[in-house]
Write a structure and sequence with these properties.
The structure holds 2 protein chains of 2 kinds. Chain A has one domain: MetI-like fold (Orthogonal Bundle), CATH 1.10.3720.10. Helix content of chain A is 71%, strand content 0%. Chain A contains 10 helices and no strands. Chain B has an 8-stranded mixed sheet with strand order 5-6-7-3-8-9-11-10, sandwiched between helices. Chain B has a 3-stranded antiparallel sheet with strand order 2-1-4, with helices on one face. In chain B, a hairpin with a 2-residue loop joins strand 10 and strand 11. The radius of gyration of chain B is 21 Å and the shape is globular. The chains are: A mainly alpha, B alpha/beta. Chain B: It is found in: Cell membrane. Chain B: It is a peripheral membrane protein. Chain B: It comes from Intrasporangium chromatireducens Q5-1. Chain B: InterPro entries: AAA+_ATPase, ABC_Ni/Peptide_Import, ABC_transporter-like_ATP-bd, ABC_transporter-like_CS, Oligopep_ABC_C, P-loop_NTPase.
């Protein structure tokens, strides 16, 4: 023990340990961004161009296989699957934005307030949210659809509400960390009021956490919409939705499996994309992993 | 004292639950005066500093009075709203850790400008210009460019100068510095100390300088308060206290930092034992369990001996008294 082995010294050790995850983190960010970009591109393209009207029923070209005319073939009503996938991307992004928007707009301020408020207010608030956590998101969405009528918007607001508790927890724990820093104390010493501290100091410093949580919530919302549409509580026809395409393909799973594969792959790409993006962003911005950079 | 009184702390008691953290802390600072507050870690220095800004944590109980010139009433009893008008304008603070004392998501120039806008009515543009001016005052190189930098782009010394600029932004009556140079290396330390002294001198502000570094107190301050176990055990002009310490704790501190003597004896003199955890100090004289001169008498609280709270000591067996009689 008299001499330090240079191979396992303090300088040598972090290299193999710290070097590898960084590269992987960069890769998941890249792949995630590409997959999400693909979905966004499909949605944007669908606004200006689709090969066919995705809702056009054409009895003469039912159940056609993949060809140059119909890239992904047609379904049992003769609708072009490729066009439906493109327009379905719109629905997918819409549900994600609504759900994450609802959750974020309510949960971010609530999380910061829960962190800054005195105990007698914060504790009951958190317990109340725990109560909400007890409801499975899908069940809540089905309940909402049953009460307020089935529409994408209603279902997604329900999904958004269901993801509030976990969102609040993340924001609150991040905020508590920020509030214990010296710059917050310094801000108070400079005469800053609590509201300004929440807005100017806490919010910008938890924003990376919010972005990560939002991308994960986005993936969950997409999956939930697909599940709801599959169950018949989500996007009503004729608006194209990947979930409903899956459901409609069910009866022809053995005769025309491609009808299930295309929307299935699309959902997988979108969910995987947002999850990888979230992971990548976390690896990049999580302050606990800062020493890797 | 002839000067106008800026800060008056009287009988300040701070406790958490049943643990006493500060006991009967009494002192005052006049306009333009620079006062050092010294003691080991855990002696209650920082807590005293926070109390002066009304920044004590929510779960502690404070009694006594903290009065600031130009502010009606006891600072300990004001609500957050009133306090937020006082903090940063009448009294400002520089913290120990320059690495964490600035918001990492905001440009330093904006942070200085905001400090100005909090207490002064002026346009954003004016505040920005004033901020650059302040950064120039604290000797930040290329202040206009530095104002656009984020905290992580600056060194520790540079950040501490930004923190100082924020503290001085509204010409406070009183500046509290809590170990502002402890985290800096020695060369930068000298520069920052110089800037602190110049900053308060130019504004004729009072300074409460908290540190455990005796040499820093000797260069910066005129008066010194020695704190141990949540009590002020000795106070007086720096010259006097450092040359002829009366309290045995002060004597121990000085001997522990006397490097010349250390070379002769080859080993640094230390105060035996360590600082007890907060609230676990002995009754009576708080220093008696580490003091080589302690007697039965020390089990009762030694009274303050001296002409005023600004000069005196609390010890039954003061140093230099027997020496005088003997010689």
């Amino acid at each position: 023990m008299s001499r330090i082995d240079p191979g396992i010294g303090a300088a040598g050790e972090p290299l193999p340990v710290g070097g590898l995850p960084r590269r992987r983190a960069g890769a998941s960010l890249l792949v995630g961004a590409v997959l999400v970009g693909l979905v966004v591109a499909a949605a944007l393209v669908s606004f200006v161009w689709t090969p066919y009207d995705p809702t056009l029923v054409d009895a003469s070209s039912r159940l056609q296989t993949m060809s140059a005319r119909h890239l992904f073939g047609t379904d049992k009503f003769g609708r072009d699957v490729f066009s439906q996938i493109l327009v379905g991307a719109r629905t997918t992004l819409f549900v994600g934005i609504v759900a994450v928007g609802v959750a974020g707009v309510i949960a971010v301020p609530l999380g910061i307030v829960a962190a800054m408020a005195p105990r007698w207010f914060a504790e009951p608030l958190m317990r109340l949210l725990d109560l909400l956590l007890a409801f499975p998101a899908l069940l809540l969405a089905i309940m909402f659809s049953a009460v307020y009528g089935g529409s994408t918007l209603v279902a997604m607001i329900a999904i958004g509400i269901a993801s509030i508790p976990s969102f609040v927890r993340v924001v609150r724990s991040g905020s508590l960390q920020v509030l214990s820093t010296e710059y917050v104390l310094a801000a108070r010493a400079a005469g800053r009021r609590p509201v300004a501290i929440g807005w100017r100091h806490v919010l910008p410093n938890v924003s990376s956490l919010v972005i990560v949580q939002a991308s994960v919530a986005f993936a969950i919302a997409i999956l939930a919409e697909a599940a709801l549409s599959f169950l018949g509580y989500g996007t009503p026809p004729p608006v194209p939705s990947w979930g409903r395409m899956l459901q409609e393909s069910q009866e022809m799973l053995f005769t025309a499996p491609r009808l299930a594969v295309f929307p299935g792959v699309a959902i997988a790409v979108a969910v995987l994309g947002f999850n990888l993006l979230g992971d990548g962003l976390r690896d990049r911005y999580d302050p606990k992993l800062e020493d890797r950079r | 004292m002839s000067g106008q009184r800026v800060l008056q702390v009287e009988g300040l008691d701070v406790s958490v639950g049943r643990r006493g953290l500060l006991h009967d802390v009494t002192f005052s600072i006049d306009r333009g005066e620079r006062v050092g507050l010294i003691g080991e870690s855990g002696s209650g220095k920082s807590l005293t500093g926070l109390a002066v800004l009304g920044l004590l944590p929510e779960d502690v109980h404070a009694r006594g009075t903290v009065a600031l010139a130009g502010v009606d009433g006891n600072l300990l009893e004001l609500d957050e709203r009133r306090l937020s008008h006082i903090r940063g304008r009448e009294v400002a603070m520089v913290f120990q850790e320059p690495m964490t004392a600035l918001n990492p998501t905001s440009r330093v120039g904006d942070q200085v400008a905001e400090a100005i806008l909090l207490h002064r009515r002026c346009s954003r543009g004016e505040a920005r210009r004033a901020a650059v001016e302040l950064l120039d005052q604290v000797a930040l190189p290329a202040p206009a460019e530095a104002a656009r930098a984020y905290p992580h782009q600056l060194s520790g010394g540079q950040r501490q100068r930004v923190v100082l600029a924020i503290a001085l932004a509204n010409d406070p009556e009183l500046l509290v510095c809590d170990e502002p140079t402890t985290a800096l290396d020695v060369t930068v330390q000298a520069l920052v100390l110089d800037l602190v002294v110049r900053g308060v001198t130019a504004r004729d502000s009072a300074l409460l300088f908290i540190t455990h570094d005796l040499s820093v107190v000797a260069t910066v301050c005129e008066r010194v308060l020695v704190m141990y176990g949540g009590r002020i055990v000795e106070a007086g002009p720096v010259e006097e206290v450092f040359r002829r310490p009366r309290h045995r704790y002060t004597q121990g501190l000085l001997e522990a930092s006397d490097l010349e003597q250390a070379q002769e004896h080859t080993r640094l003199r230390t105060i035996p034992g360590s600082v007890p955890p907060a609230g676990r100090f002995p009754a009576g004289c708080v220093f008696r369990n580490r003091c080589t001169h302690a007697t039965r008498e020390c089990e009762t609280l030694p009274p303050w001996t001296g002409p005023s709270p600004e000069q005196g000591y609390a010890c039954f067996h003061p140093a230099h008294e027997t020496a005088q009689v003997g010689s």
